[in-house]
Amino acid sequence: MGTMDLLPRIYTDCLTNHFRDGREMAFLEGPRQVGKTTVARFFQDNPVYLNWDNADHRQMILSGPAKVTEYIGLRQSPVVVFDEIHKYPHWKTFIKGFYDTHGVSADMRIILTGSARLDIYRKGGDSLMGRYFLYRMHPLSVAELLGSDTNSTIHPPRQLEERQWQRLRTFGGFPQPFLRANRRFSNRWNRTRLAQVFREDIHDIARIQEIGQVELLAEYIRQQAGQLTSYASLARKVRASEDSIRRWVSILESLYYCFSVRPWHTNISRSLRKEPKYYLWDWSMVDDQGAHNENMVASHLLKAVQYWTDTGSGDFGLFFLRTREKREVDFLITRDGRPWFLVEVKSSNGRLSPHLEYFQQATGADHAFQVIVDAPFAKVDCFTIPYPVNVPALTLLSQLV
């Protein structure tokens, strides 16, 4: 199994609940090395595992659903995992035919995993609407390390061991560097993963020739994580057109290198409306300490809103707030289109930002938190407090996912 067998993931519960409640396929997608294959393969004992990157498995898939069905029959397993099959140009046609023939039976459970967003491969035939549910898999988080109750949205505050908290802050939430907690290993692991993204994945989905420029763009995004994005400025630095920059950033998002947070402007006078901010999926790569802390909190918030949405708790969103007068709050979480809580990230204790009160009144959000990353854990349920308040990061993050 490797080191992942020491680290139970909440996504195993996702799959268990998914197949208990229905027979739709489960799509599990997320960054390379986040643990998708391990969760899918060890969700139940001895599944049929077919990996598009394996030449023998690829040939079997290309031979058609009947050949795969024959192989499954020999293995006599009710769970079938198709790993990275979205690299096959006609994967949707194949999967639709396979599911319509076999997937609706009472004992067939089909899982697809992918290290790119599965909806970007649009050449693959008929729609799969109604045949699957999507689960977006994220790196480890404070609440997951504590063992989240997957049936709850907000948890009571719980204290994470200081050793695990420092590991998470320093090495990020990808399982291998987190478990090894070794800087030399982490550096080598990061280089290998990024090489796969830039040299293999980008080529697979976009046939881009200007790989060097895309790598340079990724480096500028890393350096300015959490800052307002100027596509014109990036275009000048990378020496490419703005249209190319927008297209390449979209591809980097699709491959889980970075993610965007966009401004919320409903009921906000003179708010920004266009310029997003970008953060990295691996916050350990962000050098500046303040930006590093903000990115870590952003990653936890994104994981929460996507998990709550994917598992049917509602429609959640992650935004930021900023006016042309430069009033700003780092994050706004919405629930079913309504502002729910505000988050301003600070490295250490200080004066409460007046912008929290301003934007709480303007948006009608239920809560407004100034999250202090270096503050010690406090066993206080911050979701019972209706006014702006300082909250230790360890406390808030333990209450999420």
Portion of residues in beta strands equals 15-25%
Q: Between the first and last Cα atoms, what is the distance in angstroms? A: 25 Å
Overall 3D shape: globular
Task: Give the strand tally.
Answer: 12
Radius of gyration: 22 Å
Which strands sit side by side, in order, in the main sheet?
7-6-8-9-10-11-12
Percent of residues in helices comes to: 40-55%
Structural class: alpha/beta
In terms of per-residue confidence, which ranges show pLDDT below 50 for 5 or more consecutive residues?
Answer: 1-5, 121-126
Number of domains: 2
Average pLDDT confidence is: 91
Q: What is the string of helix and strand elements?
A: HEHEHHEHEEHHHHHHHEEHEEEHEEH
Largest sheet: 7 strands, mixed
- How many alpha or pi helices? 15
Features:
single chain; 401 residues; alpha/beta; Rossmann fold; 2 domains; five-stranded parallel sheet; 15 helices; 12 strands; 17% strand; globular; disordered N terminus
Structure overview:
Helix content is 42%, strand content 17%. With 401 residues, it is an alpha/beta fold. The strands form 2 sheets. A 7-stranded mixed sheet has the order 7-6-8-9-10-11-12, sandwiched between helices. Strands 2-3-4-1-5 form a 5-stranded parallel sheet, with helices on both faces. Helix 11 crosses helix 12 (242-254). 41% of the residues are buried.
